[in-house]
Amino acid sequence: MNLKKTNTSNTTISLYWKCQLIGWSIVSIYWAYTVYTRDNYSIFYTFLNYVLDISIGIFLTHMYRLFALKAKWSSLPMRQLLIRLVPTILLLAVLYVLINNLKWYAYWTLIAGENKNLLESIIYWDPILLTGLRLMSIWLLAYHLYHYYQKEVVTAKENAQLSIIAKQAQLDNLSAQLNPHFLFNSLNSIKSLVIENPNVARRAIDLLSDLLRSSLYEKDKDLIPIKEELSLVKDYIELEKMRFEERLQLKTNIDDDLINYKIPTLSIQLLIENAIKHGIDLKIGGGIIFLKIKKKDNNIHITVENPGVINQHKNVGLGLKNLKKRLEIQYKKNASFCLTAKDNDCVVAEIIIPMHIEDEKI
Known about the structure:
- By secondary structure, this protein is an alpha+beta fold.
- The protein has two domains: 138 residues, no CATH class; 204 residues, 2-Layer Sandwich (Heat Shock Protein 90), CATH 3.30.565.
- 62% of the residues lie in helices and 13% in strands.
- It has ten helices and seven strands.
- The chain has a five-stranded mixed β-sheet with strand order 2-4-5-7-6, covered by helices on one side. Strands 1-3 form a two-stranded antiparallel ribbon.
- Helix 3 packs antiparallel against helix 5.
């Protein structure tokens, strides 16, 4: 019962209106047959009554639909929705009775010429109330079950897409760490340390091993606590410092209350990696990377600032594109990523993640 339309023409009727017209047309046939055979309506007035019955059903249910969309009832948990539906069905059934009784009163007094009491006509509820309860219950349940099914389908598609993107991010990260340039620099650094400083060389091998292990075994996790992500970043920086030495420095400003919140796996590591690759590595004197994780307006703000410029003629890398897409799907478009340039030859990458999602925190 969605308002989705095909683009074949401007006059295409939506699925919602097709269901409304067909459903109420079928239901109203019974009442048309009843008034024609029992109440001796003429063919014209039988048809008029038939059209009015369809109109009443569509009017009441469409008014409910407009209200439910505005109140966002379809996004409520099932239990909360059912609590609201019970009194709503009763209200719609009562309105159905009143409108139908007024319709019949108008026919018998204005057209048939009989003397009918308005109050008696309005309070005649049997069996119309049961009919209203039955029809409104069926319609509301069918409407919300359809939307529940649609939501489940969309959620399944988003989860599948998120899983694919997350795994792609893991593969991209693994490829970056396994590429010849990375391994060549790391192994060269280790090689030079084997004789000069065997202890540091062993430490470098451990770091390289941990990084590769993380790329392999973290691939099944969509989210990871910030403290675990920071541990990975620390290892990555320590290994890269063996190559850059004093040219690479990392300064952090992290709110300790946030370290148990979960974020997309390897998201901070990706920002740090890009800061080194497109910033520090291109500067003769290197520079400082500033990592800040703070809470602001019920959001987690993760910012990485590094020396460098944004190449306007070069597209954003695949890793950052995947990160942006993962945030969009994981947080239902409530999270964001942006990359901006500052006037003082600095680039700032920022991730904003909402804190109010229940499964964020351990």
